[in-house]
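User: Quick sanity check before I run a bigger batch. Here is a single chain. Can you write out its predicted 3D structure?
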Amino acid sequence: MYDPSHCEFLVGDALKVATIAHRDQVRKDEFSTPFIYHPVMVMLKVARDTTNPVALATALLHDVVEDTDASIDSFPEEVKEYVEVLTARGEDKRLRKLEAVDDLGNCVSNIPILVKLADRLHNLESTPSKFDMYKESTEELLYLAYARGLFDTFNCQDLRSIFNEIKNRNG
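Assistant: Done. Predicted structure follows.
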Protein backbone atom coordinates (compact mmCIF):
# COMPACT_ATOMS: atom_id res chain seq x y z
CA MET A 1 0.00 0.00 0.00
CA TYR A 2 1.03 3.57 -0.60
CA ASP A 3 1.83 5.97 2.17
CA PRO A 4 0.22 9.31 1.11
CA SER A 5 3.31 11.14 2.34
CA HIS A 6 5.36 9.35 -0.35
CA CYS A 7 3.56 10.67 -3.44
CA GLU A 8 6.84 11.36 -5.18
CA PHE A 9 7.02 7.65 -6.05
CA LEU A 10 3.48 7.45 -7.35
CA VAL A 11 4.15 8.65 -10.90
CA GLY A 12 7.31 6.55 -11.27
CA ASP A 13 5.52 3.45 -10.04
CA ALA A 14 2.60 4.11 -12.38
CA LEU A 15 5.01 4.45 -15.31
CA LYS A 16 6.67 1.16 -14.38
CA VAL A 17 3.34 -0.70 -14.12
CA ALA A 18 2.03 0.79 -17.38
CA THR A 19 5.27 0.01 -19.24
CA ILE A 20 5.24 -3.63 -18.12
CA ALA A 21 1.49 -4.04 -18.69
CA HIS A 22 1.61 -2.64 -22.24
CA ARG A 23 5.03 -4.10 -23.19
CA ASP A 24 3.74 -6.33 -26.00
CA GLN A 25 1.06 -3.97 -27.32
CA VAL A 26 1.18 -1.58 -30.27
CA ARG A 27 -1.13 1.27 -31.26
CA LYS A 28 -3.58 0.84 -34.10
CA ASP A 29 -1.94 3.62 -36.07
CA GLU A 30 -0.10 3.62 -39.37
CA PHE A 31 3.27 3.09 -37.62
CA SER A 32 2.34 0.39 -35.06
CA THR A 33 3.77 2.65 -32.36
CA PRO A 34 4.54 0.91 -29.05
CA PHE A 35 1.41 1.34 -26.94
CA ILE A 36 3.22 2.84 -23.93
CA TYR A 37 3.69 5.98 -26.02
CA HIS A 38 -0.05 6.70 -25.66
CA PRO A 39 -0.32 6.78 -21.83
CA VAL A 40 2.92 8.75 -21.64
CA MET A 41 1.56 11.32 -24.10
CA VAL A 42 -1.71 11.49 -22.14
CA MET A 43 0.26 12.07 -18.93
CA LEU A 44 2.30 14.84 -20.56
CA LYS A 45 -0.90 16.50 -21.79
CA VAL A 46 -2.46 16.28 -18.31
CA ALA A 47 0.71 17.85 -16.90
CA ARG A 48 -0.04 21.01 -18.90
CA ASP A 49 -3.11 21.51 -16.70
CA THR A 50 -1.98 20.02 -13.36
CA THR A 51 1.05 18.47 -11.72
CA ASN A 52 -1.05 16.59 -9.19
CA PRO A 53 0.67 13.16 -8.84
CA VAL A 54 -2.71 11.38 -8.59
CA ALA A 55 -3.77 12.91 -11.92
CA LEU A 56 -0.47 12.00 -13.58
CA ALA A 57 -0.57 8.43 -12.25
CA THR A 58 -4.18 8.08 -13.39
CA ALA A 59 -3.17 9.23 -16.87
CA LEU A 60 -0.41 6.63 -17.06
CA LEU A 61 -2.70 3.84 -15.83
CA HIS A 62 -5.90 4.83 -17.66
CA ASP A 63 -5.77 1.90 -20.14
CA VAL A 64 -4.11 -0.74 -17.94
CA VAL A 65 -7.30 -2.28 -16.51
CA GLU A 66 -9.21 -2.00 -19.79
CA ASP A 67 -6.51 -3.41 -22.08
CA THR A 68 -4.39 -5.77 -19.94
CA ASP A 69 -4.55 -8.30 -17.12
CA ALA A 70 -2.26 -6.20 -14.92
CA SER A 71 -3.35 -5.20 -11.44
CA ILE A 72 -3.31 -1.70 -10.02
CA ASP A 73 -4.29 -2.89 -6.53
CA SER A 74 -1.12 -1.47 -4.97
CA PHE A 75 -2.11 2.08 -5.89
CA PRO A 76 -4.07 4.48 -3.66
CA GLU A 77 -7.86 4.14 -3.65
CA GLU A 78 -8.22 7.50 -5.37
CA VAL A 79 -6.14 6.37 -8.36
CA LYS A 80 -7.97 3.03 -8.59
CA GLU A 81 -11.34 4.83 -8.45
CA TYR A 82 -10.37 7.24 -11.24
CA VAL A 83 -8.97 4.46 -13.44
CA GLU A 84 -12.18 2.49 -12.91
CA VAL A 85 -14.29 5.48 -14.00
CA LEU A 86 -12.14 5.74 -17.14
CA THR A 87 -12.40 2.02 -17.94
CA ALA A 88 -14.88 1.33 -20.74
CA ARG A 89 -16.61 -2.05 -20.69
CA GLY A 90 -18.79 -3.83 -23.23
CA GLU A 91 -18.75 -4.87 -26.87
CA ASP A 92 -20.15 -1.83 -28.70
CA LYS A 93 -17.28 0.69 -28.79
CA ARG A 94 -19.43 3.69 -29.64
CA LEU A 95 -21.90 2.94 -26.85
CA ARG A 96 -19.01 2.27 -24.42
CA LYS A 97 -17.54 5.69 -25.17
CA LEU A 98 -20.88 7.43 -24.50
CA GLU A 99 -21.43 5.50 -21.28
CA ALA A 100 -17.89 6.37 -20.15
CA VAL A 101 -18.70 10.10 -20.50
CA ASP A 102 -21.85 9.55 -18.42
CA ASP A 103 -19.72 7.88 -15.73
CA LEU A 104 -17.38 10.87 -15.74
CA GLY A 105 -20.33 13.17 -15.11
CA ASN A 106 -21.09 11.24 -11.92
CA CYS A 107 -17.54 11.63 -10.60
CA VAL A 108 -17.02 14.33 -7.96
CA SER A 109 -13.41 15.02 -8.98
CA ASN A 110 -12.37 16.69 -12.23
CA ILE A 111 -9.21 14.56 -12.48
CA PRO A 112 -10.81 11.79 -14.57
CA ILE A 113 -12.31 14.43 -16.89
CA LEU A 114 -8.90 16.05 -17.39
CA VAL A 115 -7.42 12.62 -18.16
CA LYS A 116 -10.23 11.79 -20.61
CA LEU A 117 -9.80 15.15 -22.38
CA ALA A 118 -6.07 14.42 -22.80
CA ASP A 119 -6.78 10.82 -23.86
CA ARG A 120 -9.30 11.86 -26.50
CA LEU A 121 -7.02 14.64 -27.73
CA HIS A 122 -4.14 12.23 -28.23
CA ASN A 123 -6.41 9.65 -29.90
CA LEU A 124 -7.71 12.21 -32.38
CA GLU A 125 -4.21 13.57 -33.03
CA SER A 126 -2.71 10.14 -33.64
CA THR A 127 -5.66 8.35 -35.30
CA PRO A 128 -7.91 10.97 -36.96
CA SER A 129 -9.42 8.19 -39.10
CA LYS A 130 -11.40 7.11 -36.00
CA PHE A 131 -13.20 10.46 -35.85
CA ASP A 132 -16.63 8.94 -36.60
CA MET A 133 -16.31 6.55 -33.68
CA TYR A 134 -15.37 9.42 -31.34
CA LYS A 135 -17.65 12.16 -32.69
CA GLU A 136 -20.72 11.81 -30.47
CA SER A 137 -18.86 11.05 -27.24
CA THR A 138 -16.38 13.90 -27.88
CA GLU A 139 -19.27 16.34 -28.17
CA GLU A 140 -20.63 15.02 -24.85
CA LEU A 141 -17.17 15.22 -23.27
CA LEU A 142 -16.72 18.84 -24.37
CA TYR A 143 -20.15 19.71 -22.97
CA LEU A 144 -19.24 18.05 -19.66
CA ALA A 145 -15.94 19.96 -19.55
CA TYR A 146 -17.86 23.20 -20.11
CA ALA A 147 -20.36 22.33 -17.37
CA ARG A 148 -17.51 21.56 -14.94
CA GLY A 149 -15.65 24.80 -15.64
CA LEU A 150 -12.83 23.07 -17.53
CA PHE A 151 -13.44 24.73 -20.88
CA ASP A 152 -10.35 26.92 -20.58
CA THR A 153 -7.90 24.12 -19.80
CA PHE A 154 -5.19 23.53 -22.40
CA ASN A 155 -6.50 20.08 -23.30
CA CYS A 156 -10.08 21.20 -23.68
CA GLN A 157 -9.05 24.09 -25.93
CA ASP A 158 -6.84 21.81 -28.04
CA LEU A 159 -9.51 19.11 -28.21
CA ARG A 160 -12.13 21.64 -29.34
CA SER A 161 -9.73 22.88 -31.99
CA ILE A 162 -8.73 19.50 -33.45
CA PHE A 163 -12.30 18.19 -33.19
CA ASN A 164 -13.67 21.14 -35.18
CA GLU A 165 -10.81 20.89 -37.68
CA ILE A 166 -11.49 17.20 -38.39
CA LYS A 167 -15.25 17.75 -38.37
CA ASN A 168 -14.94 20.52 -40.98
CA ARG A 169 -12.59 18.41 -43.08
CA ASN A 170 -15.03 15.48 -43.02
CA GLY A 171 -17.97 17.74 -43.90
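The longest helix spans residues 131-147.

User: Great, the batch can go ahead then.
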